[in-house]
Fold these 2 entries.
Entry 1:
Amino acid sequence: MNNFFQENIFAIILFLLLIILLLIALIGVIVVKLLLAPKEVAQPKAAAPAVSPTITPEVVIPNFKKLSEEKVAEKYYCENHPDIPSVGTCLICEDVFCEQCLIEHDGLYFCKEHFKIFANNKWKQITDVKTTPDTPEEGLYIYNFKRHLWNDRKVPSFVLTHYKINIEEDFIESFIQLNVVVDAAVELAEDLEKFKVRH
Ligand SMILES: [Zn+2]
Ligand SMILES: [Zn+2]
């Protein structure tokens, strides 16, 4: 054993030196890799925000909603308060009003003035005209008659729309229902028929 060691001493030393050099080279590579590592990590970090905008359309949608709300608000201000955006329409005069000027009753909205007319009268429905997506203009004369009554004769009335889903044909039917004060119902129903012929 001792003999073998003496005969091969140089080879063994050379072998050990080679291993040490390899180890130094290996450590060197590891150190260089570690030093370069932050740059390699920074790349995926930079790539991450590039991916995230595609996952955040939520940010875009509220912006769009905000814009459309502003557009509506700019367009319609309360009839009584020129600086307050309106929230709805009075069924009788069809003007737009803010929250504090509108009165809600059973899902129907009126301005304060015309809620009194609504509450102090009995009403009768004088039309139930069906319109479909193919015939949307079918009930138009009723709206025109309602406006004629209010604008030209100061006669109050209001239009309700009743929706019904036609399951067989898969479309929505709407029924245009004109309501007038009971005492005037017969006369106004006749006027409406004449109005329909002329328009
Ligand atoms: Zn009104
Ligand atoms: Zn108002």
Entry 2:
Amino acid sequence: MTADGRRGLAIIGGGKIGEALLSGLIRRGGADGILICERNAERAAQLADRYGVPAVDLADAAARARVLLLAVKPQDIDTLLARLGGVVDAGHLVVSVAAGVPTARIEAALPAGTPVVRVMPNTPALVDQGMSVLSPGAHAEERHLDEAEALLAAVGQVRRVPESQQDAVTALSGSGPAYFFYLVEAMVDAGILLGLPRALAADLIVQTALGAAVMMRDSGEHPVVLREAVTSPGGTTIAAIRELERHGVRAALIAAIEAAHDRSVELGSDTH
Ligand SMILES: NC(=O)c1ccc[n+]([C@@H]2O[C@H](COP(=O)([O-])OP(=O)(O)OC[C@H]3O[C@@H](n4cnc5c(N)ncnc54)[C@H](OP(=O)(O)O)[C@@H]3O)[C@@H](O)[C@H]2O)c1
């Protein structure tokens, strides 16, 4: 607890990411010292009930918590910051997960010297397999980054990058789970086309995705090496790979991720 009586964390915005972080933190360390601030009263009550944390308003959150984690949509961030400006001081640490919103914009709305850390998390945080990427604002010191990292480490892995790389990170790991869900969806459709029951096709593909992901993570091998190991001459895999290349799937993925990057840049400048 600090001299001003503040302790712990308030999560502001109890949507998908806010809940993912809340549930992960509680699984890791319990609910003590965590507050939730959500403008939708019904949703606030639901989260308070589900996780046993107090639902508070913004002024209360700032008065009681030292770390404020902003988990609202980028389009709602300016309204939130306008209200936070009056209740935050440089003794707080503000951690924002709003995609594409630069720390400079957050700092400009808060009292001078307020430490801000920008984070790009992702939804696998719900199952403790998140990938969170941190960047410091102008007043965030190593100890603030350590503190933000310790929070996010409760729900998965954490990396630090210069803020200039955050739009690329958003496009890769922030939106990334959706690309894998999309691929799995398409592969399950292929199983159905080939006459397999949907549930069986889904089981086969989800376990295959998980197995492939763990192999990539744990073997230390390049994905090309792992793919070549299942691509025998004249075999089934190379027949499939030829179709993927013929349909430009690699180029489509690169273009898709570039589009996500461009949209992240746009969102960052849009809502001034
Ligand atoms: N979803 C993802 O995969 C993902 C991944 C990485 C980063 N992010 C980032 O995480 C942030 C949250 O995304 P999300 O998908 O969790 O959004 P979401 O589900 O819409 O949740 C945002 C929540 O915040 C509430 N809210 C808005 N303004 C508020 C305020 N002033 N005070 C208190 N609560 C407020 C919203 O209420 P209403 O329902 O009334 O609007 C909503 O319940 C975004 O900035 C996004 O860029 C999301």
